[in-house]
Amino acid sequence: MTLITALLSTGCERFSQKMTFPTPYQAVLLDNGQYFFGKLEERGASYAVLRDVFYVQSHVNPETKEVSSALIKRGQEWHKPDAMYINPRHIVAIETVASDSKVAEMIARAQSGK
Predict the structure, then answer these.
(1) Closest by alpha carbon to 21, among 83, 80, 94?
(2) Angstrom distance (rounded) from CA 58 to CA 65
(3) Domain coordinates in residue numbering, the chain
(4) Inter-residue contact 86 to 48 (CB < 8 Å)
(5) Is the pTM of this model over 0.90?
(6) Is 33 exposed, middle or buried (0-12, 13-18, 19+ CB in 10 A)?
(7) How many CB atoms lie under 10 A from the CB of residue 94?
(8) Rounded mean pLDDT of the chain?
């Protein structure tokens, strides 16, 4: 809550304090509804830096209408991004990803190559 308050009180132009999180990964919700999971850093500039980025991609089976979701690691795209630089004005919420959560388990699985 302190980080969000700091973002709002500074007009979202700069992170005014050092960000610290109790877990290695954070969930970042953007104002367009997209969630990204990664390691959120602050570089002292007007952009937040998200490294080791993952996102959820959903697929609908046209025959059964069943929805399946997969956690995708960014970096496989044609431009091979190694980080996301996010304008803080577009960050709606930042949450920690608990070490025992499904997302953390899926990240660990992706890291191990399984």
Answers:
(1) 94
(2) 12
(3) 2-111
(4) yes
(5) no
(6) exposed
(7) 19
(8) 83
- How is domain 2-111 classified at the architecture level of CATH? Roll (2.30)
Q: What are 9-36's pLDDT values in tens digits?
A: 444 444 545 668 899 999 999 999 999 9
Instruction: State how far the Cα of 73 lies from the Cα of 39, in Å rounded to an integer.
Output: 13
CA–CA separation, 69 vs 75, rounded Å? 19
Half-sphere exposure of 101 (CA within 13 A, CB side): 14
| Alpha-carbon span 27 to 6, nearest angstrom | 18
Q: How far is CA 88 from CA 4, 54, 68, 110, in A?
A: 10, 18, 31, 28
Under DSSP, the state recorded for 62 is T
User: Would you state the structure tokens that stand for residue 13, as one six-digit string?
Assistant: 């132009």
